[in-house]
Amino acid sequence: MASLSQIIFVSILLLIITTKCGAQLSPTFYDATCPRALKTIRTGIRNAVSGERRMAASLLRLHFHDCFVQGCDASILLDDSSSIDSEKNALPNFKSVRGFEVIDSVKSQLESVCPGVVSCADIVAVAARDASFAVGGPSWTVKLGRRDSTTASRSLAENLPSFTDGLDRLISTFATKGFSARDLVALSGAHTIGQAQCAFFRDRIYSNQSDIDAGFASTRRRECPASGGDSNLSPLDLVTPDSFDNNYFKNLVQKKGLLASDQVLFSGGSTDSIVDEYSKNRSKFKSDFAAAMIKMADISPLTGTAGQIRRVCNLVN
Ligand code: HEM
Ligand SMILES: *[C@@H]1O[C@H](CO)[C@@H](O)[C@H](O)[C@H]1NC(C)=O
Ligand SMILES: *[C@@H]1O[C@H](CO)[C@@H](O)[C@H](O)[C@H]1NC(C)=O
């Protein structure tokens, strides 16, 4: 039997621990304050994806581009204003990142269910998970309690990984965010869904390099002329563009990666063996992808009293 003093001691200890860790994310963060939060997001994302399969890809990418700039704080959602230099106008995002209206619509539903409670940053994180699951990808438990930034950084967004980056550069950029080369390869597997614009892969398909399958290059050239047609779309995974599988890696092994930054993961370098492994083992890819997404969603969240809960996602309160 615990004595009263022991109970008091343990209680004080617990109080100290919970206060210290009060600034941590937790999957149950909205259980008391907005029990319908997760279900509302899931329904919104499911509807959006059944309306347009590609939206799953766009939402996954939105989360990535949010988290790599100032952390997962919904900074990418802020519009240009006198105080905000919008990340939407940075080169990697401009006329490229999509899904804003889906997030805005889910947010407005949540505002009517439980006003001022659920952050835009959490919506983006949960949307990415629900989007993955909606197209056959893995699911995972999303930790919650991120708050929204009151700032954005267009200049940091300019430094998002580029399709022209070599393997060393990709590895080091991801390392600065706490990712291993294995995480980089797993996360790049998101390119098993979605589309890319001609301007991002033109150089590769007209280069006649030995790291591209000749037949693949000539097929791609039909939809991506040597000049003009910059925004013409081509699937990142030509075989199964709308389902989350490991075809992306099978493509790389066949030199059929669409972006130069895809093919560098399998071009004689240190990541070849990982690509090879994922090309043969879909379940291993999916579980590594889920683990890496959980890691991504943990990048520098604003918690406690930092930041704010925006009322609308594109504007600071
Ligand atoms: C490794 C470095 C990466 C580079 C250089 C890169 C680059 C790109 C580029 C250039 C596009 C085409 C954009 C357009 O044409 O408008 C794209 C699309 C996409 N990216 Fe990445 N990406 C990288 C990593 C990631 C990661 C880590 C994820 C998510 C976990 C991701 C998810 C996607 C998705 C799903 C699409 C298709 C989006 C859509 O159809 O709307 N990418 N990426
Ligand atoms: C690549 O090859 C194609 C067809 O073989 C040719 O028309 C084109 O000029 C070549 N491009 C370069 C950059 O060498
Ligand atoms: C695939 O990876 C899983 C782990 O996710 C492992 O248990 C299994 O043995 C692997 N399968 C093959 C064929 O290597």
From TrEMBL:
Residues annotated as signal peptide: 1-23
Site feature: Transition state stabilizer: 61
Gene Ontology CC annotation, any one: extracellular region
Residues binding substrate, per UniProt: 161
Residues annotated to bind Ca(2+) 2: 192, 237, 240, 245
Binding site for Ca(2+) 1: 66, 69, 71, 73, 75, 87
Residue stretches in coiled coil: none
Sequence positions that bind heme b: 191
Similarity comment: family membership: Belongs to the peroxidase family. Ascorbate peroxidase subfamily.
Job description of the protein: Removal of H(2)O(2), oxidation of toxic reductants, biosynthesis and degradation of lignin, suberization, auxin catabolism, response to environmental stresses such as wounding, pathogen attack and oxidative stress. These functions might be dependent on each isozyme/isoform in each plant tissue.
Protein name per UniProt: Peroxidase
